[in-house]
Write a structure and sequence with these properties.
Elements (H helix, E strand, L loop, with lengths): L6 E4 L10 H17 L6 H15 L4 H7 L3 H7 L15 H5 L6 E5 L4 H11 L10 E2 L14 H10 L6 E5 L2 H10 L3 E5 L15 E3 L2 H9 L3
Parallel strand pairs: 1-2, 1-4, 2-3, 4-5, 5-6
Helix pairs in contact: 1-2
Length: 224
Amino acid sequence: MKDKVKTIIWDLDNTLYKYNDMQVRLWHEGVVKFMQSKGIEMEMEEAIALAHKGWTEHRDSNHYFIKNFGIDKNEAHIGMFKYIDQNMITPCEETPELMTFMDNHHHVILTYATKEWANRILDRTGLINFFHPDFILGAEDYDFEDKAYSPLGIQTALDKIGGYASEAMFVEDTLPNLKTAKQHTDVYATYLHHNRPTNDNDLNDIDLCVQDTPELLKWFKDIY
């Protein structure tokens, strides 16, 4: 498989940096601060609980604020990142050096976050120089369609590089995003499990399963 891959399409959050449970709360706090800026008055803990409910039930911390208070979905999706500090994340120290062995590959970001947030994270992780600006795709580049339910994101990424799906690997820490991509394209699907439990049913159609990005890059490094 790895000798066929010419392009790696990377998810961003919890993929190109270390996963940490504390980030979930900080993310929710950013959502709440945006909602407060729109005039929603709730106690912080109550609002964080509502954000968490949206995340666990709908994979969207904004969900119940949009539903209950009529907040515009796309405005919320963009606006919340003004209240989230990229310094909350912990970079993988090994990743920049390991990426230097990937010069023969194209690298694409496909994130459900925004392009602006992606640039902040790539700068924070020391990875910005590995990604051409035209190959950093935020949700605004594919109509804010959730990667778990729509193939538009992966199709947009493939169109951008002008390459074949069979020569691309899609790297994600979210299984539904990978499964949707596999249903509609021939990309190789790589799942980062972060030591979360999985079973054989979870991994149907998944081509490779590794703990994190450094482990994946070490797997690639063996071809040199």
